[in-house]
Amino acid sequence: MKSQLILEDGTTFIGQRFGSEKEMIGEVVFNTGMTGYQEILSDPSYCGQIVTLTYPLIGNYGINRDDFESIEPSVHGLIVKEVCDMPSNFRSDLTVDEFLKQKNIPGLSGIDTRMLTRKIRQYGTLRGKICGMDVDVEEVVRSLKQHELPTDSVQKVSTVRPYPSPGRGQKVVLVDFGMKHGILRELTKRNCDVMVVPYNITADEILQMNPDGIMLSNGPGDPKDVPEAITMIQNIVGKIPLFGICLGHQLFALACGADTEKMKFGHRGSNHPVKDLQTNKVALTSQNHGYTVCGPSLEGTKLQVTHIALNDETIEGLKHTEYPAFTVQYHPEASPGPEDANGLFDQFIELMKQQQKVGNF
């Protein structure tokens, strides 16, 4: 069945509908990863977005039970050049089409994804709608221009109540702003005793748990839409060792007096080179973010840049110059992507152990 993607600038892309027949509006973004579509579809950081995959064939290894990054996906649509209906993989349980039907997510194939990606790179992310052929395009364009991007994305994807992932090692409070399961897997792999908590937890509630460290997770949307988290971090820094990833990195920067801004089209893919300014080593990283920390805003703060993106020199890592706290913009847990930066979790473990030796600060 023919369907179309209509963008807010009036551009239309006609293709074949797969997945759900539901009509959906979202911010249209692109991901350059060659694999990992299942993890991308289930990444909470894509909440409210329509994802274009630049790799031309999607679905050839199906959907399996093990590679999800969340229980319920929150992506608003999937755009591909070609979708595979007959996957070949011993782990495959479903096709992409079957999975999207189950989760009521629309997909569109037969699209010139290269043209769509070039448009996003030229003009920036655009609002779009996946819909049928019988709509009034001009009316859809008017509604897209008036459509406000959601400000409650973190609230939608965060856990409602705390839950544990027991271990015998370091006690970590993991604040869920839209946590990928890969982060939890890396902590439990290191035998951490993890308590996953909602995005709006207070500093006092965290301190009552007496943790050895706090992890700030990834998540969707504008970090300035989560002011309660910024307040919490301000009251935590200097009291507990801290490690932040992606949205957690941006919230940490805001809490320490820096500023963030929206990027033209963001970083979404699994091969972004990042330079560690302390070692001069370069790692290939998995990334998914549409906002970045403003470099000039760091002046006068107690934050030091530790990593930069080699493609555009945006800030990819920070550390506090006085307290045991560091963050990265990229995803050291990968899923999907390279595991070059996986050692940052070990660095976090060591930071907590060192702090235990010196006592409270």
Automatic annotation (TrEMBL):
<feature type="binding site">
    <location>
        <position position="290"/>
    </location>
    <ligand>
        <name>L-glutamine</name>
    </ligand>
</feature>
<dbReference type="InterPro" id="IPR002474">
    <property type="entry name" value="CarbamoylP_synth_ssu_N"/>
</dbReference>
<keyword id="KW-0028">Amino-acid biosynthesis</keyword>
<feature type="binding site">
    <location>
        <position position="247"/>
    </location>
    <ligand>
        <name>L-glutamine</name>
    </ligand>
</feature>
<dbReference type="Pfam" id="PF00988">
    <property type="entry name" value="CPSase_sm_chain"/>
</dbReference>
<feature type="binding site">
    <location>
        <position position="219"/>
    </location>
    <ligand>
        <name>L-glutamine</name>
    </ligand>
</feature>
<dbReference type="InterPro" id="IPR050472">
    <property type="entry name" value="Anth_synth/Amidotransfase"/>
</dbReference>
<dbReference type="GO" id="GO:0004088">
    <property type="term" value="F:carbamoyl-phosphate synthase (glutamine-hydrolyzing) activity"/>
</dbReference>
<comment type="subunit">
    <text>Composed of two chains; the small (or glutamine) chain promotes the hydrolysis of glutamine to ammonia, which is used by the large (or ammonia) chain to synthesize carbamoyl phosphate. Tetramer of heterodimers (alpha,beta)4.</text>
</comment>
<feature type="binding site">
    <location>
        <position position="250"/>
    </location>
    <ligand>
        <name>L-glutamine</name>
    </ligand>
</feature>
<dbReference type="InterPro" id="IPR017926">
    <property type="entry name" value="GATASE"/>
</dbReference>
<keyword id="KW-0547">Nucleotide-binding</keyword>
<comment type="pathway">
    <text>Pyrimidine metabolism; UMP biosynthesis via de novo pathway; (S)-dihydroorotate from bicarbonate: step 1/3.</text>
</comment>
<feature type="active site">
    <location>
        <position position="331"/>
    </location>
</feature>
<dbReference type="InterPro" id="IPR029062">
    <property type="entry name" value="Class_I_gatase-like"/>
</dbReference>
<keyword id="KW-0315">Glutamine amidotransferase</keyword>
<comment type="function">
    <text>Small subunit of the glutamine-dependent carbamoyl phosphate synthetase (CPSase). CPSase catalyzes the formation of carbamoyl phosphate from the ammonia moiety of glutamine, carbonate, and phosphate donated by ATP, constituting the first step of 2 biosynthetic pathways, one leading to arginine and/or urea and the other to pyrimidine nucleotides. The small subunit (glutamine amidotransferase) binds and cleaves glutamine to supply the large subunit with the substrate ammonia.</text>
</comment>
<dbReference type="InterPro" id="IPR035686">
    <property type="entry name" value="CPSase_GATase1"/>
</dbReference>
<comment type="similarity">
    <text>Belongs to the CarA family.</text>
</comment>
<feature type="binding site">
    <location>
        <position position="288"/>
    </location>
    <ligand>
        <name>L-glutamine</name>
    </ligand>
</feature>
<dbReference type="InterPro" id="IPR006274">
    <property type="entry name" value="CarbamoylP_synth_ssu"/>
</dbReference>
<comment type="pathway">
    <text>Amino-acid biosynthesis; L-arginine biosynthesis; carbamoyl phosphate from bicarbonate: step 1/1.</text>
</comment>
<dbReference type="Pfam" id="PF00117">
    <property type="entry name" value="GATase"/>
</dbReference>
<protein>
    <recommendedName>
        <fullName>Carbamoyl phosphate synthase small chain</fullName>
        <ecNumber>6.3.5.5</ecNumber>
    </recommendedName>
</protein>
<keyword id="KW-0055">Arginine biosynthesis</keyword>
<feature type="active site">
    <location>
        <position position="333"/>
    </location>
</feature>
<keyword id="KW-0665">Pyrimidine biosynthesis</keyword>
<keyword id="KW-0067">ATP-binding</keyword>
<keyword id="KW-0436">Ligase</keyword>
<feature type="domain" description="Carbamoyl-phosphate synthase small subunit N-terminal">
    <location>
        <begin position="1"/>
        <end position="131"/>
    </location>
</feature>
<feature type="binding site">
    <location>
        <position position="45"/>
    </location>
    <ligand>
        <name>L-glutamine</name>
    </ligand>
</feature>
<feature type="region of interest" description="CPSase">
    <location>
        <begin position="1"/>
        <end position="171"/>
    </location>
</feature>
<feature type="binding site">
    <location>
        <position position="291"/>
    </location>
    <ligand>
        <name>L-glutamine</name>
    </ligand>
</feature>
<feature type="active site" description="Nucleophile">
    <location>
        <position position="246"/>
    </location>
</feature>
<feature type="binding site">
    <location>
        <position position="221"/>
    </location>
    <ligand>
        <name>L-glutamine</name>
    </ligand>
</feature>
<dbReference type="InterPro" id="IPR036480">
    <property type="entry name" value="CarbP_synth_ssu_N_sf"/>
</dbReference>
